Structures are given as C-alpha cells and as structure tokens.
Amino acid sequence: MPPAGFDIARHIWLVPALPAAAFVLIGVFCLRGQRGARAAPALLICALAAAGVLAALAIYHLASVGGQPLQWGVRWLSVEKAQPALHADIGTLLDPLSAVVMLVVCAVSLAVQVYSVGYMRGDPGYARYFAFMSLFSTSMLGLVLSNNLVLTYIFWELVGICSYLLIGFWYKKPEAANAAKKAFIVTRFGDVGFLLGVLALSLSAGSLNLVDLERTINGRALKPLFLGESAFVTVVALLIFSGAVGKSAQFPLHVWLPDAMEGPTPVSALIHAATMVAAGVYLVARTSFLFSASPVAMTVVAIIGAFTAFMAATMATAQDDIKRILAYSTISQLGYMMLGLGAGAFSAAIFHLTTHAWFKALLFFVAGSVIHATHTNSIWEMGGLWRSMRATAIIGAIGGLALIGIAPLSGFFSKDAILAGVASSEVLAQTLGPLGRQVLFIVGLAVIPLTGFYISRLWFVTFAGRRDESRGKAHESPGVMLLPMAFLAALAIVAGWAQGWFANFVQFAQSDARHAAHVPWLPPASVLLGLAGIAYARMRVLPAAAAERRPKSAVHIFLKNHWYIDYAYHWAAWKIVLGFAAVAAWFDRHVVDGMVNGVAWLAGRFAFTIRRSETGQLQFYALVIFLGALAAALAALRASHGMWGP
Amino acid sequence: MTVTLEHFLLLSAALFAVGVFGVLTRRNAIGVLIGVELILNAANINFMAFWRYVAPPGTMEGQVFIVIVITAAAAEAAVGLALVLALYRQFGTIDVDEIHDLKG
C-alpha cells in the first residue's frame, strides 16, 4: 500500500527515470573492468524491480479511483505566436491503458535482465549490453507514460535507436550490422508518416496533449488543414498508423523483424516480441479517439492486421531458423492485435498485447535456451533435446500452447476476445458490410491452425525425435535462465484468467467491444482448429525429420522465401536507386560538368583570340599607352567642355 | 612680336610630339630612351611657362617640379641605360624589334 500523502500520479515519472539512472551509472562506472561489468545487471534489475513496484502501485491506485486518468507535467515547449498557440509538456498520463502496459514492460524487462545474466555471461560487451537495455527500458516506459505526442515521438525514436544498437550488438558480424541498418531504415518509412501526422494534428488541434486532443476530436472542434473534417481525420489517423505499421512490423513494412533476430536472443524476447514491436499497437490504442472518428482508418487497420496475421503465419510454417519462426509468429500475432484494434475491440487487443508479451517472451527464452545449449539456430540441427533439456521442453510446450490458444492458457482468452470483437464489430459491418466482416473473421480463424502447425513443428523438431550425438551433448540451461522462464510460464498460464478484470479495468470510451456478442461456438472451434494444426504437424513433421529440410513443393518454396517480398523490395529498390543514379550521373556528366567545361572552353577561346595583341614589341606597347593616354585626355576634355568646343 | 604663353606651349607640344615619335619609331633602345628624355623636357617647358605666365607671383612650385622631374629623368636614364646594357648582354643586340620574347 502506498504511504499516506504519496501522490502516485506526481511520482510516476520515476518509473522511466529509474532505468535512466541505471543507464547513466552503468555508462559511467561499469564499461571498464570486470568488477564494474558484474555490477551492471544488478543496477538495472534493482531499478526495474523498483519501477515494477511503482507500476503495480499505480494500477492499485487507479483501480481504487475508478480508472480516472491522472496527468502530471511541466511545461516544456511553448510557441505562443503560432496560430493556434502550441504547447508541449514533459508530462505523464497515468490511466489504466498506460498503467497496464507499463507493468508488462517492467515485468518482461525484469525477466529478460535476469535471463541475460546467464545468456550473456562472458560476452566482451556485457556491460554495454546492459547499458543499452537500460536505455531501452527507459525509452519504452517513457513512450508508454508520455502524455503528449511530441514526447511520444521522441521516445518512439529512442526505442528505435535502442533496437538498432541491440540488433547490431555483435556489430562485427556483417549480418547483424546489416540487419540493424535494415530495421532502422524500414521503420523510418513509417516514422515519416507518424511525424507528418503529429505535425498535422498540432496545426489543426492546437495541442498535442492526448487528453486535450481527445476532447477536441470528440467535440468535433478540429480545424482541418485541408479536405473536409472526416477526410482530414482519416488522413491523420492513417499517417499515425503508418508509424505503427513500421514499428509493429505490419505488411508491407514487416521485412525488418525476421532479420532483427541477428541480435542476442534476450533482446529479441524483450524488444522484438514483447514490448517495442507492440508500441505500434499501443500507439493506435492510445490515439483510439482519433481512429474511432474515422471508420475508413479503422477498416484499413483491420485489413492490414488480418492480412499480416495470415501472411506471416504462412511464412512461419516453412522457416528453419528457430528465431525466425518466432519472429514471423510475432508479426502474425501483432496482426491479430491490429485486427482487433481495427474492429474496435481495443480492450481485447491490449489484452492480447499483454498475454502475448508473456508467452512470446517465454518462447524466445526457450529458443535462447536451446541455442545456448546447441550453438545453432537451425531447428534441424537440434532434435531430441527432450532427453537433456526437459525443463526447457516443458516450458516451451506451455508457451506454444498459450500461443496456439489452447484453453485454459492465456492466448486462448485474448485471441478469442479479438475474434469475437471482429465477429460483432459495428465499424467493420458499416464499412465492409456483414460479408466483408465475415471474411476478416474467417481469415482470423484460418490463422489458428497455421499457428498450431508452425509452433508444434518447431517444438517437435527441436525436442522430440532422436539427438544426433555427433553434434555434442546439450546441457540444460543454468538456474538464472530457468527462473525467469518459470516466472513467465506461470504468467502465460494464468494471465488469461484475469480477462474479466482486465476488460473492466482497461475500458475505451469508443470501443465496440462492450457490445461484443457472445459467439458460443467460437471457443471450442478455435481450440479444435489449434489442435488440428498440432495433429497435422505431428503427422507430417516427425516422420519426415531431416528429409523435410529440402523444400519439396512450389508452395513450400514460396513460403520458405517469405513470399519473395524481400526479394521484390530488393529488386525494386535496386532498380529505383540505379535508375535514379543513372539519371543523376547523366545530369552530372552533361549538365554540371558541361557548364564547368563550357566556362573553361569559353575562357580558353577568348584568350586565344586576344593573345595576338601581345606582340612582345616594346614600341607597340608604348603606342598603345600613348593612344590610351590620348583617348583619356580627349575624354576629359570632352567632359569639361562639351563636344570639342568651349 | 612678344613671346606669349602660346608660343611656349607650341614649342612644348612640338618637343613632346618629337619625343613620342622617337619612342615609337626608333629601333635603337638608346634612341627610345632619348625620346623619353625629350617628352620629360617638354613637360618641363610647360611647367616653366605656366609658372611664368599663370601662377600667382611669389610661388615656387613650378620650379620645384622641374627640379624633381630632372632628378627623376636622371634616375630614369641611369636605370634605362643599365637595362639597355643588360639587354645587350642577354641578346647581343639593342634593337627593340629583335627583342620580343614575350610575344603571345
């Protein structure tokens, strides 16, 4: 219980500030020497534990005051002369949405740091790793807590740079360095749209404070810069959504996330599964008032989400790299969340964000554990780990079942909440018609058996079968890694049971979900679909084992090459860049160089023309001087007396 | 016939013209130098004439200028003859038409 007189809303800024302090301390004291490096994780873990306690207190406080949003801030930027005047604060907005996501970030980050103590042991960049992790935790918590879009954008970019730094953590590996660049550049495409959206909002609404913005837009007091009001809101919402598409790896900007797996596995668990990639989902939920004002934007969000969920799930079925399977799975699950947001089931989407954070971070921990034991990423080089890594295998099964959505694990509740929200979505029925809504719903259902297939394929190939002893013995991971895995496994099991409390706590004024019709056949149907996926994987994968490594059918090759989207981007970028370069080269050679050479040529011609006047004859020069003097004298005479006369 | 300012000016102009003609036409470098001396002395006659006929009484500037010009002419003759000597040593001639190494 908080002590009397402790105003949680005034002190919630401590949550991002604590890991920031850890970042500074690690940066100053720990980067040199062995002893300092050993202190680095301790600093960060203490900071995150304290931040987690504060976040839990905040949730307790909010629940007791009925979820009223609490703001605190200091004025930072103030442009009085702008029309309308523009203000930006450094401030926090504490409401159920931010409090829940904040707690999720603290908990996953804490688990990841403990896990990293074991996973990163002996790495030469040990302290640097924790410094980056602290900076990331700070930025992510700041992003969640920010009460205005300027601050959100700043933290948005900060998590982006942390992602870049941590993907490229092993920067001497060219693949890691390239993956880091790819992640940064691809997300930038979306961020440009986000920035434009923020600027357009600031000019039209006169404030970027989220509470003010909500009031402005709900009160229809927005002054559109162009088009009509509803079209303008649609444009702004889609611009902001483009930022979310980049960060949350939605089609067509999803290509960076699988490559981001070059980073250390705990980084993948924290940044590229549980928190940063969910920032896009959080942003859309945070600005839900904006999206609710535009049915078109909502529909775009839903369609992109559904398509991404399906596309990434199919890609995940044909990958060999354990982390890439999980990366495509993450993209697919983020697509689910977007689908839920677009359908107006905001609360369900955030609930799925929460449960997904537990079980996907857990699955990455499992992947890290087997990679740690076998020193390979290919599932075909693992095999039969069940004998030597029983705890990891069981935890992996829990994570997988939660991901598929087998009752009563957490994924079951959150995924069905999204699907039920889609089935009864008013906004989708309004824009797409009942049939279009039905199509999105069926796409959502179709992802379930795909999920069941790819994750059980991963599990069967990795843990079942027989271990190829020539690859060396695999050892179970140390306790410091198993402990956070057990912690997340427990959460992945029980988190779904809080669905009623969650839906009641995290409410959205504009949400359709409260009217969500109960679809009685959905829960058993989704479980059956998931089980069908598992059964198919059991039938197909296990006997095939190593033979499966060679792609057989055209479909398999298509999926293994992730729909050739990366190649298409590469080809298009290459053509565009080379085409533009050819034009630029022509321009440089013929126009720029032409001008320079032309000036030189003219000067040369002129010089060759007048060089004849240089005779070298002394008396010729004297004659010219004399004639010049005469001309000057005559001119002076003419100026003082007029034409020749007095 | 009284001698007036115009007579002096005519004499000076004639001397100047002869000097310029010498500078422009003589092929011998020493002849060119003599032409320069004539031009300078034409200027000196002008100074003297204007001092005598135009300048207010009691002023000395005209004569002072003449002394300065004579000094400068002496210096010019010294430098000029030294140059001619150097030319002769370099080219073996003092015919200015032959010396045109700076032809463009």
Features:
heterodimer; A: 646 residues; mainly alpha; two-stranded antiparallel sheet; B: 104 residues; Helix Hairpins; 3 helices
Task: Report on this structure.
The complex is a heterodimer of chains A (646) and B (104). With 646 residues, chain A is an all-alpha fold. In chain A, 72% of the residues lie in helices and 3% in strands. Chain A contains 25 helices and two strands. The longest helix of chain B has 31 residues, at 61-91. Chain B has three helices and no strands. The model of chain B has no long low-confidence stretch (mean pLDDT 91). Chain B has 104 residues and is mainly alpha-helical. Chain B has a single domain (5-91), classed as Orthogonal Bundle (Helix Hairpins), CATH 1.10.287.3510. In chain B, helix 1 (5-25) packs antiparallel against helix 2 and helix 2 packs antiparallel against helix 3. The termini of chain B are far apart. The chains are: A mainly alpha (646), B mainly alpha (104). The interface between A and B is medium-sized, with 12 and 14 residues.
SSE string of chain A, helices as H and strands as E = HHHEEHHHHHHHHHHHHHHHHHHHHHH
Oligomer: heterodimer
The count of helical stretches of chain A stands at: 25
Biggest sheet of chain B: strands, sense, closure? none
Largest interface: A-B, 12 and 14 residues
Please give the count of helices of chain B: 3
Structure at a glance:
Chain A is an all-alpha fold. The model of chain B has no long low-confidence stretch (mean pLDDT 91). At the A-B interface, helix 25 of A face helix 1 of B.
Task: Itemize the secondary structure elements and their pairings.
The complex is a heterodimer of chains A (646) and B (104).
Chain A lengths: L7 H4 L2 H17 L3 H32 L4 E10 L6 E9 L1 H24 L6 H20 L3 H19 L6 H32 L4 H9 L10 H19 L8 H4 L5 H10 L4 H8 L1 H5 L2 H22 L5 H21 L3 H29 L15 H15 L5 H14 L2 H38 L15 H16 L4 H7 L16 H23 L9 H7 L4 H46 L7 H24 L5
Antiparallel strand pairs in A: 1-2
Helix pairs in contact in A: 2-3, 2-5, 3-4, 3-5, 4-5, 4-11, 4-16, 4-20, 5-6, 6-7, 7-9, 9-12, 9-14, 11-15, 11-16, 14-15, 14-19, 15-16, 15-18, 15-19, 16-17, 16-18, 16-20, 17-19, 17-20, 18-22, 19-22
Chain B lengths: L4 H21 L3 H25 L7 H31 L13
Helix pairs in contact in B: 1-2, 2-3
